[in-house]
Every structure is written in C-alpha cells, then in structure tokens.
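Encode chain A's predicted structure.
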Amino acid sequence: MRVWAKSEDYWSVYFDMHEQVKKLFDAKGISIPFPQMRAHSK
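Encoded structure for chain A:
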C-alpha cells in the first residue's frame, strides 16, 4: 500500500500505517509467511 504524506510527516505516517495494518491482520487472523530455511547436518 502506498499513501501520500508531507515529508516532515513521513516516518510517523509510515510507522502508524504499519502498526494499524498489523493490528487489523492480527484481529482477522491473517498471517503472512516469510521465507525459512532449515539446514540439517550429520
């Protein structure tokens, strides 16, 4: 998602948007998988 903000407000808008999206995803039970690698050695 992209939003427009004044330069001086960029970081506060950036972090607030991420926080709000994360809270909404958590409330709806949505999780986003991330790449994982398992390495086994014998």
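The chain has a mean pLDDT of 92.
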